[in-house]
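Chapter summary example.
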Amino acid sequence: MKKKISYCLLGVLLFAGLYVWLRVSFGLFTPYNSWTARQDLKKGKVQYIAIGLPVMPQVRNQVAQQYEFEYNYVGCVVTTELLNGSEYYNQEVKAYLEKKYGEGMWENIKRKCDSLIAANAIDK
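The structure predicted for these 124 residues follows.
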């Protein structure tokens, strides 16, 4: 009887440890992870997860529309699971967009955003 209880307890502890490890390391049970990224890309929903306070979000979204994706701003207060999950999500999206538009597309996006932000600053 004691062996049966100890095996059950060991099984529960292993399962709980695996669950916590997958959740924290890969963000597997968050809304944004590599699996949900592949599902969204199959549906044609291309979005890049941006964490933190957005700087000129309208400018970033304007440039993103040229590359047929959108930024999804999550916010400033996030958990480790969400950070890790969104990192894997963004890796899938980056690979998809780089395959579609070429390797240097992220530098082009940054350059266009910087020039539009600078132009807006001059206008004000």
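To summarize the output: The chain has a mean pLDDT of 85.
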